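Consider the tokenized backbone below.
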């Protein structure tokens, strides 16, 4: 399991982030992102993952994110590029199963099928 800081991911372009995440998950790693992906990055991650699913090689990803905090001020909404999720958990679909998710807690089961 790798814990990734917001700073490390901030140095990557959106395409690099998605590619990095897919490569790590394909290698069997479970990633915990300090700061979640933007909605666009999540959509790109899901789209790219769907094109690479192969029953014998890669079963896909499981991803859970805490809900984002809403920006209350007008200026905050004006200059914010959109809400990002808080902590995000990403892993191989055949090894990571979300059991429960609420506003402040994600309960997941990790198995070693490899």
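A designed sequence for it:
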């Amino acid at each position: 399991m790798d814990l990734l800081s917001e700073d490390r991911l901030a140095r990557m372009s959106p395409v690099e982030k998605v590619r990095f995440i897919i490569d790590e998950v394909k290698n069997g790693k479970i990633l915990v992102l300090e700061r979640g992906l933007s909605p666009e990055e999540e959509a790109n991650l899901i789209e790219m993952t769907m094109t690479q699913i192969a029953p014998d090689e890669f079963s896909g990803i499981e991803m859970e994110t805490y809900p984002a905090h809403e920006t209350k001020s007008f200026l905050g909404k004006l200059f914010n590029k959109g809400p990002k999720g808080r902590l995000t958990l990403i892993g191989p679909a055949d090894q990571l199963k979300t059991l429960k998710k609420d506003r402040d807690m994600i309960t997941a089961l990790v198995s070693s099928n490899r």
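The chain has a mean pLDDT of 82.
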